[in-house]
Write a structure and sequence with these properties.
Blueprint (H helix, E strand, L loop, with lengths): L1 E5 L4 E3 L17 H7 L5 E6 L2 E6 L1 H12 L7 E5 L5 H15 L4 H13 L4 H7 L4 H8 L6 H8 L5 H6 L5 H12 L8 H8 L21 E4 L4 E4 L2 H21 L5 E3 L11 E3 L7 E6 L5 E9 H9 L19 H19 L3 H14 L16 H8 L2 H17 L15 H11 L4 H14 L6 H9 L12 H6 L3 H11 L2 H6 L5 H13 L31 H13 L9
Parallel strand pairs: 2-4, 3-5, 8-10
Antiparallel strand pairs: 1-5, 3-4, 6-7, 9-11, 10-11
Helix pairs in contact: 3-4, 5-6, 14-17, 14-18, 16-18, 19-24, 21-23
């Protein structure tokens, strides 16, 4: 990068500067220093025509221009000259200066990051360049989903940043509906917190409040990138599942010997000062409090103050203990907390010396969970029943189900249990499973752990691609082309390429003008050896190979699996690095 002193009149602002087009900046803080000492920090510029355009250093440029207007002599300005035409690097330089100096508003950041993405930068590289998280970049780029009219409202100061960010939760249809309210002088368009309630059907119910397995929920889940929360888009379905889960939990309390379980009306507050704490043995009840945000709290061991006073007032026989008077707990709440934390510290310190025991505890958590563990089995949701049937009939899935039966038998679980991994937020099932695992050998526990990991492996993820390439998995004997696969093939170029691969290039060229249906029929004939075609054994499409690739020159990064593979490809050099476990 060349360093030169350039005359002020040979400089102009670059359109690539993230603050280009904004109001003239306030330079009163730096102008006295520049007047006294000149510009000490070089501007970042690049050639443009006969002069140079400023990539970074906009305020210093305006300060110098103000001094010139006031009649001051401005010496040539020190400048670092970049290569001409490197828009991505220029954008980064401008962003780095501005982010470090003054936080830009969300729309300015979005416009700047969007330009970088258009120049070919990835989310990861943008995050690394500006020392921010990938989530922060994704949050900013989420504004791309907003309608232009909404962005204009923000730029004209007609809505605030909070409203702008909440609107990223809205579908295009919801955004249009909201804009109708904005433009209707007689209507009231919700903003801020009320907007979130309006978008989510009046109830902001976080997924973390669910007492049921999220796999049972079939509605949409809306992700709030700015709030780090997920919300149920279908409150009615949530409440159906949540109510059922609360009823099951209440039944468990009844079976455990509590005198009564009282489920309060939704939204009813539990006034703890109107109750007195007592034990289960002394008739304590469980009060279930449900708020409108979906959260449910279980208050164990309470009776009303009226009942407690009646017990204390009831006379007892002389010299005889009062059987009805509740016993005062010997441990206060503060002491309880003290003891819990110290006992926790003792157990943690001891576990550090027993990795084999900790391993069993980990497996218990993977399967049964606790309030701190949130592991779920891969739900394998499919848009078509034909896809589900195809997967269920595959040799790989049958092997998986066979192992499930063996694992359930090993643990003494119900053979009809749908999932091994089943977390309900209660540590008791994990404790009971931990006790069971202590009786099993390390080999058996490792086998159980392996199945739990496999069951909770996310489909379509980078992990699937990384593992498949690590083992150089060959699907030849575990998968074969079926009618569902052929039916889902839509790209005619890909179909023709497959035909050339499975038959011959000449046959493919001869059928280039034929419909996709005709070409798929020929492929099917070769695979089955029908209609005079020689059977082709062991053929696999590139889609079922590791590493994953397409059949045409169309970039595969637009495909979910392809995008996942490209993210981990560098670790494998584009090839498998098979290793033994």
């Amino acid at each position: 990068m060349q360093l030169r002193h350039i005359k002020l009149e040979d400089l102009k602002l670059a359109t690539i500067n993230v603050r280009h087009g904004k109001a003239t900046p306030d330079v009163s803080d730096i102008q006295p220093s520049i007047k006294k000492r000149g510009i000490l920090q070089p501007l970042l510029v690049r050639p443009n025509g006969k002069g140079f355009e400023i990539v970074a250093g906009r305020r210093r440029y305006f300060a110098a221009r103000n001094l010139q207007k006031e009649g001051e002599k401005v010496e040539p300005i020190p400048c670092a000259i970049m290569a001409k035409g490197d828009d991505a690097a220029a954008m980064e330089a401008s962003l780095l200066e501005n982010i470090a100096r003054l936080p830009m508003d969300p729309m300015q950041q979005f416009e700047a990051f969007a330009k970088l993405v258009k120049q070919g930068e990835t989310i990861g590289s943008i995050a690394e360049t500006f020392a921010i998280t990938e989530l922060a970049v994704k949050r900013t780029l989420a504004l791309a989903g907003l309608l232009p009219a909404i962005k204009t409202l923000y730029q004209n100061d007609q809505i605030d940043a909070e409203t702008l960010r909440i609107l990223t939760l809205a579908s295009k249809a919801q955004q249009k509906e909201w804009l109708v309210l904005v433009r209707d002088e007689k209507a009231h368009a919700p903003t801020g917190f009320q907007l979130k309630r309006w978008l989510l059907g009046g109830e902001n119910i976080k997924t973390g409040h669910a007492l049921f397995d999220l796999a049972d929920y079939k509605g949409a889940i809306v992700t709030d990138l700015f709030g780090d929360d997920d919300y149920f888009a279908n409150p009615e379905q949530f409440w159906t599942l949540q109510t059922k889960a609360i009823e099951q939990r209440a039944q468990a309390y009844n079976e455990d010997g509590w005198s009564k379980v009282i489920v309060q009306e939704r939204g009813q507050y539990f006034a703890e000062w109107e109750f007195e704490k007592t034990t289960k043995e002394d008739g304590g009840r469980v009060y279930v409090v449900i708020n409108h945000r979906g959260d449910a709290a279980f208050h164990e061991g309470y009776i009303t103050l009226k009942e407690a006073r009646a017990r204390k007032a009831k006379p007892s026989g002389k010299g005889e203990p009062d059987q009805d008077r509740p016993k005062k707990p010997e441990i206060t709440k503060a002491m309880q907390t003290y003891l819990e934390l110290h006992r926790h510290a003792l157990v943690r310190a001891e576990l550090l010396s027993h990795p084999k025991i900790a391993f069993r505890l980990t497996v218990a958590h993977m399967i049964a969970g606790s309030s701190l563990w949130q592991i779920r089995p891969e739900p394998q949701r499919v848009p078509k029943s034909e896809i589900k049937a195809s997967v269920l009939n595959s040799p790989s899935h049958k092997a998986f189900e066979k192992e499930r039966t063996a694992i359930l038998d090993l643990l003494g679980f119900d053979k009809d249990r749908a999932d091994l991994v089943r977390c309900n937020g209660d540590s008791y099932p994990a404790a009971m499973l931990f006790v069971r695992l202590l009786t099993l050998s390390e080999v058996q526990v490792m086998r159980i752990m392996t199945f739990a990991m496999v069951e909770s492996l996310e489909a379509g993820s980078c992990l699937v691609e990384a593992i498949g390439n690590h083992f150089a998995i060959d699907a030849t004997d575990k998968w074969q082309v079926d009618d569902v696969f052929l039916d889902l093939l839509k790209d005619k170029k890909a179909i023709n390429a497959m035909l050339a691969d499975i038959a011959t290039k000449q046959i493919a060229e001869a059928n280039t003008a034929a419909t996709g249906k005709v070409q798929k029929g020929i492929i099917n004939d070769f695979l089955k050896g029908e209609n005079g075609r020689k059977k082709r054994k062991g053929w696999l499409p590139n889609y079922m190979r590791f590493p994953f690739k397409g059949h045409t020159d169309t970039p595969i990064k637009t495909i979910g699996i392809g995008a996942s593979w490209l993210r981990v490809k560098a670790e494998f050099g584009g090839k498998s690095t098979k290793k033994s476990a």
